[in-house]
Amino acid sequence: MDDLDVVVRAAHQAFQSAADVVPRVRKSWLDGVADALDASLDELVDIAHTETHLAPARLDGELRRTTFQLRFLGDEVLRGLHLAATIDHADPAWGMGPRPDLRSVRRPLGVVAVFGASNFPFAFSVAGGDSASALAAGCAVVHKAHPAHPALARRTAQIVVDALRDAGAPDGLFALVEGEEQGVRLVEHPLVRAVGFTGSTRGGRALFDRAAARPDPIPFYGELGSTNPVFVTPRAWERRADEIVEGFLASVSLGRGQFCTKPGFLAVPSGGDAARRVADAAAAMGDTPDLMLSERLRDSFETSLRALVDRDGIDTVIGGPSTSPEPPLSILTVSGEAILADPDLFEHEAFGPASVIVEYRDEQQLHELARLVGGQLTTTVHGEPDDDAAPLLAELSARSGRVLWNGWPTGVSVSYAQQHGGPYPAATTSTTSVGADAITRFQRTVAYQGMPEEQLPIELRDDNPLGIPQRVDGVLRLNGMEVNR
Amino acid sequence: MDDLDVVVRAAHQAFQSAADVVPRVRKSWLDGVADALDASLDELVDIAHTETHLAPARLDGELRRTTFQLRFLGDEVLRGLHLAATIDHADPAWGMGPRPDLRSVRRPLGVVAVFGASNFPFAFSVAGGDSASALAAGCAVVHKAHPAHPALARRTAQIVVDALRDAGAPDGLFALVEGEEQGVRLVEHPLVRAVGFTGSTRGGRALFDRAAARPDPIPFYGELGSTNPVFVTPRAWERRADEIVEGFLASVSLGRGQFCTKPGFLAVPSGGDAARRVADAAAAMGDTPDLMLSERLRDSFETSLRALVDRDGIDTVIGGPSTSPEPPLSILTVSGEAILADPDLFEHEAFGPASVIVEYRDEQQLHELARLVGGQLTTTVHGEPDDDAAPLLAELSARSGRVLWNGWPTGVSVSYAQQHGGPYPAATTSTTSVGADAITRFQRTVAYQGMPEEQLPIELRDDNPLGIPQRVDGVLRLNGMEVNR
Questions:
Q1: Which chain A residues touch B208 with a CB distance below 8 Å?
Q2: The domain made up of A3-224+428-443 is a member of CATH 3.40.605.10
Q3: What ipTM score was computed for the predicted complex, to two decimals?
Q4: What pTM, to 2 d.p., does this model score?
């Protein structure tokens, strides 16, 4: 037994002793963490600013989002919809033959390994979405710190650990580990039952492969690459080209382009003066207050941007490869024909302040381009009420987790309906890492057959002391009301 | 393009054209298939009996179960709970900052490859659970026939294809392919978006590995191995040993032991005369009317049984390895100590009429044994009201998809609460292959942001023309009623 093993075993024990606490208690743990983080906001934003070079205002907002998320998921725990409590009473006249008493509820998986992302040092890191949803599900979390913000990770983890202890949670329910090797060993540890990951396709796929190759494969919830293409209809371009360009540049520049939902492509009609409009609008824009997160990311962005610029048919409108420590905004153009000839260009993600304008010849080519798009976190259409956008939206919704109309994909609301995921490589599974449904990734259903009332989990008792939604003999019930005959 | 490619492309086209039919229409397709299968019951049972050697009465019941399942899942389609329709209206005062209008619904994945099992030629085969739930989700199905019943697979597929056509479904929504190579190619085909599989751990894992190694990994829903251990408390054994032995032998013998939920181990107190009781009860039992499904399965059972008998500490009570074409019921015994010394014995599945009685020394050893159990479809406790069974049930529920009390695991009810799955190797994911929730395996959620009403999927419209459950701003609603504040 070495250190990692000690940490994971302690997490497993904490998970076991906490698996059956009532919702109100689990909610109080999540609230405790949120309160403690909020109380340390200034200190945390300071450390984060030093390590990540993101602007304080952005970090402030991100931490508030993170504590909102903890409370939001805690509220979900209280509501109990995520438990999917289901009761089938014994039925001798059931259509396929006598049915035994059968009841099922979703239970927490166990210890979850969570890998932090560099670009959201709060919201997708130590106390971010994966950790919050795993804790809400009733799991224990071992968090692998991102090497781009080690001091912040340690301080945040200490606050989380202290807050959980102060709230009465068992020791070990949350722990931090560091280093690539520890991360790999986490994914392969027999007591780790699932992995949450946000990062690059390359790094994520390597860990996914390890999770799948285990003697007992475990789910690997990875959010990997996405280029988030945006399609502008001819009418929308004709009527609001400048407004669209302005929104586009703002979205691409946000956080110096280091968003997984940054629009990497903007498809507009050719002959619509896109290059000039972009150059004019960019000249009028101020620079972003955020800097590149790390030298490593800067280098990787430059390499990726160079590779993009070297592709056939790509022209540079503004910016381009540079040696400056803070790369300027780069906007490139390419014709629809060039993409049709080199379709995997649509998968080329340059993680930083760059995007490609695709000039399509006509609406037919617009649709051909849409059919080339691979798995995406988001796709977007800018259209007009008199557009027949249905076919385009159908193509795009088949390829993405979230489809936007006349909006920009940066900014991911934490809410009930959010879906932050999408076909590979956007995500490795069909689940979401943001929003209410993120909890269910860290659960599995257990059915109880013929179980005496006193041995049933409290969620499955006929008297429903928690007052949670129960589906009883097919009918959804709440507080005695039948609601879904 | 070869034959397989043609089939998958046709399935993909059919999926696309059928993805948006209203629930009533999809229900009518499932009902059409069920009606057509019921109308051909005699013919199908005849073919199945010839090919599988299962008794006609059993096959008759299995086909009725299969058509019940199609109708049951069709009813679920009408209810619409599986769509998880969620509406978040725009909210400028949302806790983390202004929330856009965001709505999400579960959509079908696309073409699903389904692998039939040999031991349930109807219920887990051509028109079985995986096919029914994939069709209910809105997917197309390409079914890989099990080589143990090719004529039955072809005839069943023809009936399904004809019934779907007669009901108005697009051509290609269901197709049959044969041969191991075609199966492998299906798992690797770019247009196949998920796989359903029921079979051996070895065969299933090989296909799982291929699904995970794709350039774009897809979910592989495999139901693999399970030994379904049953634990009898000292009190239960003292009070009802003979009744328990009778139920045990009946469950082990059912379908000549060829059930994935056959109890492979029965843990009883030592010194309780288990061997004599088993011998007496077996002598009083008639033989099962079902025969071994195939020579291959018989040979594999004999090999597995011999390996079991050769393990240290195993004694034979009745039966044992034989050269007869229809192996007799074999019951072996082993001490709790021997299992503790050789714990992976609990994973040894002999697929056929054999089971092992584990004689434990005391209650402490009973608990030690329970902690050795790996991932299982089912675990069972036979206990008494005055037993403190909670710790034992907690250990077992952490290891299995379904936990039974004073019952037998063979027999899997198709109902709302069913969970047919479990930690690996029982299943490769946390999902269920039987019951209402089986549908959701073949869906993924798509969120729509800022989408005009007329572009939204019908399930997400404010006027809710389908009358399905919608979660609106966090509150579950049905027919205008608010039901989950």
A1: 212, 217
A2: yes
A3: 0.97
A4: 0.97
